[in-house]
Amino acid sequence: xxxxxxxxxxxxxxxxxxxxxxxxxxxxxxxxxxxxxxxxxxxxxxxxxxxxxxxxxxxxxxxxxxxxxxxxxxxxxxxxxxxxxxxxxxxxxxxxxxxxxxxxxxxxxxxxxxxxxxxxxxxxxxxxxxxxxxxxxxxxxxxxxxxxxxxxxxxxxxxxxxxxxxxxxxxxxxxxxxxxxxxxxxxxxxxxxxxxxxxxxxxxxxxxxxxxxxxxxxxxxxxxxxxxxxxxxxxxxxxxxxxxxxxxxxxxxxxxxxxxxxxxxxxxxxxxxxxxxxxxxxxxxxxxxxxxxxxxxxxxxxxxxxxxxxxxxxxxxxxxxxxxxxxxxxxxxxxxxxxxxxxxxxxxxxxxxxxxxxxxxxxxxxxxxxxxxxxxxxxxxxxxxxxxxxxxxxxxxxxxxxxxxxxxxxxxxxxxxxxxxxxxxxxxxxxxxxxxxxxxxxxxxxxxxxxxxxxxxxxxxxxxxxxxxxxxxxxxxxxxxxxxxxx
Length: 487
Ligand SMILES: Cc1cc2nc3c(=O)[nH]c(=O)nc-3n(C[C@H](O)[C@H](O)[C@H](O)COP(=O)(O)OP(=O)(O)OC[C@H]3O[C@@H](n4cnc5c(N)ncnc54)[C@H](O)[C@@H]3O)c2cc1C
Prior knowledge:
It is a single chain. By secondary structure, the chain is α+β, with helices and mostly antiparallel strands. It has helices spanning 11-19, 30-33, 57-70, 124-133, 150-155, 163-166, 169-172, 201-205, 239-253, 265-274, 300-316, 329-340, 342-349, 364-378, 408-416, 418-431, 447-453, 456-469; strands spanning 24-27, 50-54, 73-77, 95-99, 106-110, 115-119, 136-137, 173-180, 185-188, 213-221, 223-224, 228-236, 257-264, 288-296, 322-325, 356-358, 382-389, 394-401. The protein has 4 domains: 11-102, Uridine Diphospho-n-acetylenolpyruvylglucosamine Reductase, domain 2 (2-Layer Sandwich); 106-224, Uridine Diphospho-n-acetylenolpyruvylglucosamine Reductase, domain 3 (2-Layer Sandwich); 228-343, 2-Layer Sandwich (Alpha-Beta Plaits), CATH 3.30.70.2190; 350-443, Alpha-Beta Plaits, CATH 3.30.70.2740. It contains 18 helices and 18 strands. The chain has a 7-stranded antiparallel beta sheet, with helices on both faces. Strands 5-6-10-8-9 form a 5-stranded antiparallel beta sheet. The protein is globular. The chain binds flavin-adenine dinucleotide (FAD). Flavin-adenine dinucleotide (FAD) binds next to β3, α5 and β10.
């Protein structure tokens, strides 16, 4: 990285200058800083000279300029729900946390263009509600939507449960406003669906996990509200049948198919155990279940007909064993909650090793079968918690221990084997031409493993982009790319 004579001020002097450089909240008290120094899973803990919460894009630019002048690293942070440790500062180092949560205004709603312009700290759920209040849908949907921010969603290119129909965060974003590592403001808030005027800078910042610049605002696409939403819970014998069922659903439900989620029996049992109000949708549960959502612009009658014809075909072909269709919004929510509560149920159960992998859909059954076999040969006591967005080829393939709730020592032992478990899982992902991070990003969790599976050319190109946009490596250093790659 570039050498430059910086104004080396003491930490105290830097803090004094930073405090006076912007409008917003400045936190330096250790107790008040503490909640900003952890991730959601409490796997990472860092340190920071201060936490700042600017009120405007100009304030963000002023913070970046002050940090640049004194060569202090900046860790952007939204709701800190990320699962790869990207929003946590490094334990050692001279850094501040730049929390965007006070930059939370809806700037513009353009109904004719079907777009909404929002600031980075807007909570995802608030954007959805704002869209709804204007008879529009903002389809990005995650279990963490009550806490995560759109800046975090875009920076980690979040996926969620509607990708099958509407695409991931990247696909939903038409324009960005960025504070660059240089402290300049780039206003790229264009609500255009077509713009071929050179390199796509917007796409560089999306998914960059805060390592190239700060997202301060975004133009997002809105969609007409579906007239009907119907949810079905279906039991299937195998993942192979689930994949065939997906093809049948795509054929019969067309673009109305908005979610196709795979849920193993182990996941369902975990949710039923930890959420007292939940109940099993079917009398007899099978090894695998599908939660399918139809979002239709047709009348209720014809949407029901479409779904019925599809289910009859599926039964005829022996692809499903049993199933129910939601009869009310309330029932649809109950079925969704069984899917959405899996992450929390796992957290309540204890430690587990998460894998967020993407595979060609045609390879998913082979992946699960072969990886489970290899893992169980090496670690006979493990239990797989496997669920995910089958329609996107994205599995959450998590490894835990059987009945380990009251056995912290066993859980620690599981974590001690993390590296070996990751190696087996991710080698198999690579063998099947998949990706070791489908929607959670690399952060620090997957940074070095990604380097193992990416080609040298890809790594060099990534490092060149980083060096060009952030020559002093101040933007979320240590995340995505190992510092050694930046020398
Ligand atoms: C219960 C639960 C369920 C989840 N389900 C899903 C899911 O289905 N799909 C999915 O994709 N993810 C999921 N996640 C992960 C997480 O919610 C998403 O990654 C979310 O998009 C992170 O948003 P955040 O505001 O919390 O970002 P943070 O965690 O605060 O940050 C994430 C990354 O973005 C950077 N960043 C944050 N804001 C900015 C900004 N304004 N400018 C530049 N960089 C920034 C941070 O430095 C960090 O590297 C889930 C998490 C939980 C806890």
